[in-house]
UniProtKB/TrEMBL annotation:
Region feature (Disordered): 87-106
Keywords, ordered alphabetically: Hydrolase, Magnesium
Organism: Hoyosella subflava (strain DSM 45089 / JCM 17490 / NBRC 109087 / DQS3-9A1) (Amycolicicoccus subflavus)
SUPFAM superfamilies assigned: HAD-like (SSF56784)
Signal peptide interval: none
UniProt-recorded name of the protein: Uncharacterized protein
PANTHER family assigned: N-ACYLNEURAMINATE-9-PHOSPHATASE
GO function term, MF aspect, one: hydrolase activity
Amino acid sequence: MGAVKPDRRIFQHALREAGIRADRTVYVGNRLDTDIRPAQSLGMRAVWMLRGEAPPAPTERQLSEPDAVISSLTGLPLVLERFAGREPTPPSAVRVHSAAKVEAPR
């Protein structure tokens, strides 16, 4: 395709290939600059996974950028339930930063 993240064309290509609209898509990534911001700029909801290249102690400002924050994929089902408008009882191991910010254990 000839492009690399954060080029929006990569995200647009993925949406076309999947045959889904951006507003019906959730993107999970570990970097704000190359994952979260480009996905959100196209209208996707973005979940920041605090693994890999994510900072070990993100600031409140950083935590406010994505639609949700998780530290493990085990937190993703809870986030998807919230995005779908359902409010499940969070497991005791999941920490809620705000109404949309969720963090599961590492």
